[in-house]
Predict the 3D structure of the following.
Amino acid sequence: MKDIIEKAWDVKETINFMRTIPIGKSISLWALADEFITANGGDKDGTVNGEFYALINRMDAGLSWMLAVKEISLTHDDNGLSKLTRLNDSGVLPR
């Protein structure tokens, strides 16, 4: 799991992963973390909360960049849980 969390530090890795999510799909942060773990060969059921937060914190730079260029939107459901929606693909990556 440590390797997967370290991979999330790479902004381009996070962006490339996010671009595998279909445009128009909404996904919760929990589901996003599960999919990232699974896509990188990990066991989504083998994590603990600390690892979830470490993973999301490391993905933050890539997610923030995608929010800035309007590739994703961030909303909250009635319970206050974050949901990301994939809007489009700008086709560019940060330097």
